[in-house]
Design brief:
The protein folds into two domains: 79-321, no CATH class; 326-398. Helices cover 63% and strands 3% of the residues. It has helices at residues 19-51, 67-77, 88-105, 132-153, 157-188, 193-199, 205-208, 210-224, 235-238, 250-274, 295-317, 323-353, 358-403; strands at residues 112-117, 120-124. A two-stranded antiparallel sheet has the order 1-2. The protein is globular, with a radius of gyration of 28 Å.
Length: 433
């Protein structure tokens, strides 16, 4: 067992705060997220405009800082329109279901170790649980109900298709995301977020378990429905997706809040589970007081902003993928690779913990590697054969269309125009109208 610093909180440190301290921490978390939404929208616009050589928001306030506040005020004061065919109760409830679980999911994120808050020693984390990571996954799954209900209650085919896409997308990527956490549970020995941060005292899990980290990064975009995986909002084929029937009013503002809150939650979980949480990066960690007091809040915030900037960078760089590509990546690539990686991590962990079973662990690791290579070669061979068959089919169809212009397509006039359709056209004398 690694030695844990006295300042590191454990599960035993939670549940002992006075009620007023808990309320203060909840208010601080709420203010952080609300201000994060305002500045996050502005920051995303500015960063994308800088990447695309544009100015971005520059009218409302200095550097356009008040643009997000102006947009929120405008949406809050606009007329609230209800389409005549919607289910009014679910239509109103859906945006709320999208926002509330996102707030709750962020409550398990640790910002710092034990700090002095108005004379009370308390962990700078709202709550921690023995199954905190599972709680986060559950809140992410519950929020999808809001998207599905928004599409279903709108009674619109485009909105319904967007809601169904979101349901199918979250099922595939929630499984892959959950599997990417299993390796962390094996090494940390806990599902508590504060203790997972403590387990990264020596090495961050993003370095130790890099395949899990890379898989989570991909799943993060699918879970938060961000470009290139924002298929529930595919404007090109669904007009506006699940939010088609929501006008630019307060309901639409809640939907935008839900999207940004899920992005913040994905960034916070990435920092907590893979990037050392509030721990200072090297070489700042060599300073003895780097991970004590209120300094860890700064390290957490810097990591959080960097992860969010990466999400914005991907949005500015990559186009939206097709829906079949999205589902194929989740089911055919991420989940099988995750399962093979978990077996390999379990074998290596067995070697470290139980040295007496070294040969068994090596045997399991060898079987996993050989099985993964065999599956990959088989998949590559089958995929290559299908491509060749498809190419041969396309070539055959092209030859058929070339030999018979009217076969399987629009009528194409033959090159011999005077004899088109068996009618011989006579030349028209010059000068005749």
């Amino acid at each position: 067992m690694k030695h844990v610093l006295a300042a590191d909180p454990t599960l035993a440190d939670f549940g002992k705060d006075p009620l007023w301290i808990t309320i203060i921490k909840a208010v601080m978390l709420f203010v952080f997220l609300m201000l994060g939404i305002l500045f996050g929208v502005w920051y995303e616009r500015k960063l994308i405009s800088w990447m695309q050589n544009r100015r971005g928001p520059n009218r409302a306030g200095k550097f356009g800082l008040l643009q997000s506040a102006a947009d929120g005020l405008k949406m809050g004061l606009k007329e609230d329109i209800f389409p005549t065919t919607v289910d009014r109760v679910l239509y109103l409830l859906a945006p709320v279901i999208m926002v509330v679980p996102a707030f709750l999911a962020f409550s398990i994120v640790p910002f710092a170790p034990m700090v002095n808050l108005f004379g009370v020693q308390t962990p700078l984390q709202l709550v921690d649980l023995p199954v905190a990571v599972l709680f986060m996954l559950a809140m992410g799954a519950v929020s999808v109900y809001g998207v599905v209900l928004a599409g279903w209650s709108s009674r619109s085919p485009y909105a319904l298709l967007g809601g169904l896409r979101s349901a199918a997308q979250v099922v595939s990527y929630e499984i892959a995301m959950g599997l990417s956490f299993v390796a962390i549970f094996l090494f940390a020995g806990t599902l508590s977020t504060s203790e997972i941060v403590a387990a990264q005292e020596q090495t961050w899990f993003a370095v130790l378990l890099i395949p899990s980290f890379l898989i989570y990064v991909v799943c993060m975009f699918g879970e938060a429905a961000r470009i290139p995986f924002d298929l529930p909002e595919g404007e090109g084929e669904l007009v506006g997706g699940f939010q088609t029937e929501y006008s630019s009013s307060l309901k639409f503002a809640l939907i935008m809040m839900g999207e940004y809150l899920h992005t913040f939650t994905a960034s916070g979980i990435a920092v907590t589970l893979f990037l050392g949480g509030w721990r200072a990066p090297f070489p700042i960690s060599l300073w003895e007081g780097a991970n004590a007091g209120w300094w860890p809040v700064l390290w957490f915030f810097i990591k959080f902003v960097l992860v969010f900037s990466f999400i914005v960078w991907v949005r500015a760089s990559l186009p939206r993928v097709r829906y079949d590509q999205l589902m194929s990546l989740g089911w055919k690539v991420l989940i099988p690779v995750n399962l093979a990686w978990i077996l390999l991590v379990a074998a290596v962990r067995n070697l470290v913990v139980n040295e007496g079973d070294r040969m068994i662990g090596l045997g399991i690791a060898g079987v996993v590697v050989i099985g993964a290579l065999a599956i990959w070669l088989r998949f590559d061979t089958v995929n290559q054969r299908r491509k060749e068959e498809r190419k041969a089919q396309v070539d055959a169809e092209f030859e058929e269309l070339s030999s018979e212009p009217t076969a399987g397509g629009f009528p194409v006039p033959p090159l011999d125009l005077p004899h088109y359709h068996g009618v011989q056209h006579k030349e028209i004398p010059s000068g005749t109208n």
